[in-house]
């Protein structure tokens, strides 16, 4: 602990009377019950009380001055203050709270007039508050539907059915699972706002799904059957001969389910991918391929080769 | 030691009789028992009178003001709690508007809220003309 004289703001040779006066002045400033919102007041007041315990009494003060006792023994045990009960709902604090500080707020004719005016012991019945939660689900859970077990703040769990085709921001309402009602009022609802995590390759566009599908040069040139992912599993799609990057294939009914039972479509966007390893045979061929050299794919941009 | 209200008149507490404080209306315990709040409040009254040397007239004023502060704190707590169950976007909007209100009128009515006081309008006009 710091020097009690310093805490009390007095000189070492101050009279007992001065010490008491200083203590009282500081106590009025620092008492936690006179600073209900200041968390630090408690520690400061504790230090002040400890300092006064030590030098507020002339006999004890003399022993302290002679070095017979030191500041460490003067700690007071922790105590609770009135403010700890006054704002809390239980334990009797409501007995003393007083509405005089805001009664005039009830004079208006807006929605808050009732809120401010309702105090004063009238019996009221009020529906409990709706409580909002954020429910994070995977992309495919949103598209295909899922049952999610959620834990509520009160420790209870419930199974929440996410309907197929659920979208980001959609709100699932569980009636009666919100805040408790007041005075016999019905409980509020629990509202779960869905947040959909993005998928590594599916992108959702309304009820349609877009996916970029890599194809090999051979598949692009010759066409063929390849397997493509959809939210409900792999399907076989036919790549037409001579398919370019950017070509879009529509897989009808492979998108997101609508409420009426129909489904959106999946759009597969092709992307030609060269093998990771260089291939000498292909390089040799391209070097001799005259049509390829003449081809200018940037013509539509008005760019001529230099 | 203080749990029974019937013994209050015999209990000396920091140089005052609990019974006197009840008669003053400073303490309002229920019929038979002191609650935790009653006891903490009695200690507070003791601190005011004994530790701070405040006289009884001033104690009454202080208690009344402290009770109003707690009424307001409770109310503020309810308002903030109500804001906190709103969606995050609305929470942010209310926090922002609350700061804006601090610069505008000091009326609470929803009818007047958001309408800048003539004072503010004058200042804004002044700022525009300065440009």
Could you characterize the architecture of this molecule?
The complex is a heterodimer of chains A (about 300) and B (about 130). Chain A is of the alpha+beta class and about 300 residues long. Among the domains of chain A are: about 80-120, no CATH class; about 125-200, Sandwich (HSP40/DNAj peptide-binding domain), CATH 2.60.260; about 200-300, Sandwich (HSP40/DNAj peptide-binding domain). In chain A, about 25% of the residues lie in helices and about 25% in strands. Chain A is elongated, with a radius of gyration of 38 Å. Chain B has about 130 residues and is mostly helical. Chain B has helices spanning about 20-25, 35-50, 55-85, 90-105, 120-130, and strands at about 10-15, 15. In chain B, strand 1 (about 10-15) and strand 2 (about 15) form a beta hairpin. The interface of A and B includes residues 80, 91, 93 and 108 of A.
Per the CATH scheme, the topology name of the domain at 202-298 in chain A is HSP40/DNAj peptide-binding domain
The structural class of chain A is alpha+beta
Specify the CATH class of the largest domain in chain B.
Mainly Alpha
Task: Please work out how many helical segments of chain A DSSP would assign.
Answer: 10
Instruction: Give the overall silhouette of chain B.
Output: elongated
Order of helices and strands of chain B: EEHHHHH
Tally of separate domains of chain B: 2
**Terminal Cα span of chain A:** 84 Å
Could you tell me how far the N terminus lies from the C terminus of chain B, measured between alpha carbons in angstroms?
Answer: 73 Å
Portion of residues within helices of chain B: 55-70%
Biggest sheet, spatial arrangement of strands of chain B:
1-2
Low-pLDDT segments, ≥5 res of chain B: none
Beta strand count of chain B: 2
The CATH architecture assignment of the largest domain in chain B turns out to be: Orthogonal Bundle
Low-confidence stretches of chain A: none
Structural class from helices and strands of chain B? mainly alpha
**Mean pLDDT metric of chain A:** 88
Q: Any idea what the CATH architecture of the domain at 202-298 in chain A is?
A: Sandwich
